[in-house]
Automatic annotation (TrEMBL):
UniProt xrefs under NCBIfam families: eIF-2B_rel, PRK05720.1, salvage_mtnA
Pfam families: IF-2B
Record site feature (Transition state stabilizer), residues: C164
Keyword Isomerase: yes
Purpose: Catalyzes the interconversion of methylthioribose-1-phosphate (MTR-1-P) into methylthioribulose-1-phosphate (MTRu-1-P).
Keyword Amino-acid biosynthesis annotated: yes
Residues spanning the membrane: none
Enzyme class: isomerase
Protein name: Methylthioribose-1-phosphate isomerase
Gene it is expressed from: mtnA
Pathway the protein acts in: Amino-acid biosynthesis; L-methionine biosynthesis via salvage pathway; L-methionine from S-methyl-5-thio-alpha-D-ribose 1-phosphate: step 1/6
Length: 367
């Protein structure tokens, strides 16, 4: 997608053919900074610190991290060590494990002398594949928006609710939940996005709003607890969110607060869709609520806020009283029964094992 008229991916191989460039998402929306990642350890730190975030982008970053590890040391021990280090950087997004497994599967049979070049080639393939997958997700999701648009008066927008950031910043390009929105907008279909701020890290207010603004998509940032009110007053036509892991039974793990939006959507008859690439499906898990590990993040994400002051300074301030205990669960799980459909690169599917296994038999058999 574009930033000030220039096309960017969220991650890329630098012209030197070795190091990796990535947008530092911790600095958005106030500063656009490109970080250079030169070692596997730096790739792991980029993931854990949320310099990069979003399940598909985490996977792509891990793939490049494996390539950087092989450039430094292509031994069997180094291959195993890099995989374990990167796998420990974030526990919830299954794309991380998928990408590491893909890299190890491609590299383990090779001689050490051939691993570095092969690792860079496979990492580039994973990134390019993600772009095409997300383009196809958008193509299938576009039909949902077109159907609603056909019921509207001329010029009346389709109102879409999002949660967190499932945009191109969370993938290599296009995004998952935003891909249908971008494709609808680019086709001239009036669309408006309600952007949940998504506390505590404010990925909606900081990232989704930033990228929608740069693409010219009309949007409104709302506090997290506003969605139910909007749905009651028929101000939301559909919700589209992303996900960090989908269980084999269709349960969806996404940023904390997603479950509450799904409940509100169900109560008000608002379609609630989840957009995801197939590497996000974990066929080894049958019950998302009981089996998906939920990351608990630092208390400082809740106790402190960072923003730009009136005179342009970036400041961090404390908003919680000293001594108050904080719980910071990063994700929740939305039961499959609340999901209207899963928007994948192979179509819009029912949120159940049969539909997922039928659409992706090659993955369901190996898990």
């Amino acid at each position: 997608m574009k930033v000030d008229g220039r096309h960017f991916r969220s991650i890329w191989l630098e012209p030197d053919g070795r190091s990796v460039g990535a947008i530092d998402q911790r600095r958005l929306p106030h500063e656009f900074i490109v970080a250079k990642i030169t070692t596997a350890d730096e790739a792991g730190e980029a993931i854990s610190s949320m310099l990069v975030r979003g399940a598909p982008l985490i996977g792509a970053t891990a793939a490049y991290g494996m390539a950087l590890a092989m450039r430094a040391d292509a031994s069997d021990a180094a291959l195993e060590r890099a995989g374990k280090m990167l796998a420990a950087s974030r526990p919830t997004a299954i794309n991380l494990k998928w990408a590491i497994d893909e890299m190890q599967r491609a590299l383990a049979p090779l001689a050490a002398s051939a691993r570095a070049d092969a690792a860079y080639a496979r990492a580039r393939e994973i990134a390019d594949e993600d772009v095409e997958i997300n383009r196809d997700i958008g193509r299938h999701g576009l039909g949902l928006i077109e159907t609603i648009a056909a019921t509207k008066k001329p010029g009346e927008p389709v109102n879409v609710l999002t949660h967190c950031n499932a945009g191109w910043l969370a993938t290599v390009d296009w995004g998952t939940a935003t891909s249908p929105i971008y494709q609808a907008h680019d086709r001239g279909i009036p669309v408006h996005v309600w952007v949940d701020e998504t506390r505590p890290r404010n990925q909606g207010a900081s990232l989704t709003a930033w990228e929608l603004g740069h693409h010219g998509v009309p949007h409104t940032v709302i506090p997290d607890n506003t969605g139910g009110h909007l749905m009651q007053h028929r101000m939301v036509d559909l919700a589209i969110v992303g996900t960090d892991r989908v269980a084999a039974n269709g349960d969806v793990c996404n940023k904390i607060g997603t479950y509450l939006k799904a409940l509100a959507a169900h109560d008000n008859g608002v379609p609630f869709y989840v957009a995801l690439p197939s590497p996000t499906i974990d066929f080894s898990i049958d019950d998302g609520i009981r089996q998906i590990p939920i990351e608990q993040r630092a208390a400082s994400e809740v106790t402190h806020l960072t923003g730009r002051t009136a005179d342009g300074r970036i400041e961090t301030v404390r908003v919680v009283p000293d001594g108050s205990t904080v719980a910071n669960f990063g994700f929740d799980v939305t039961p499959a029964r609340l999901v209207s459909g899963l928007i994948t690169e192979r179509g819009v599917l029912s949120a159940d094992r049969a539909a997922l296994a039928s659409a992706f038999p090659e993955r369901s058999k190996v898990s």
